[in-house]
Amino acid sequence: MNEIMKTEKWCENVIIVDGDYIDKVAFDLIVNFERMIGRRIQQADIARWIDCVALDGGMKPSEQDNDSDAQTTVVFIHNKDAVKLNNFVPGDYANDLHLKAFKDSLGEFMMSAFPVEESVVNKRDFFIDVTKTICNLKEVKRVMIIPDAEKMYDDVRVALKNADDDKRITVFAMQPMPGGNFRQEILGYSLMQALGIRADEIN
To answer: Which residues of the chain have pLDDT under 70?
Structure first.
């Protein structure tokens, strides 16, 4: 947590991601949809997925590509023994994601990856601590949170109970969950977009 909070400047928009969870969900979607639609599904495009999360979180694209001043911090939290996202490209935490950035019509996205040593700190506690801290920062206006909803959704809901009502906070899960002091979005939609699964293929 101390390392994260040493970041010089937090953007108005922040995306907090449980990397291990999204990798697992992406794998499950790949396996299930390959059977369903009868074709091979490529790894998810990480930039496209982040864009979809940002749009679901209420961000708006600029009218002209690469002409947006919006800045977004993307924080990946993952187990130390997971060196990469196996079902995303690019996916190597150290070489492809940590302290890397990309820019498009939604603005600039600056990524960081933080491995968690379970023998030092529980990942759930670390994730919740990061979430609470970021949501309490005055300069942060919009937060998009992708937790392991199966294990820590209730913890996230409690952590956000007293969050500032002026902030736009969106929590992503694979299905509708009990409400809280935040908006909800279905995680599967953004992942399907990033995996290149078209709506007409599943209708």
So the answer is: 1-8, 63-68, 203
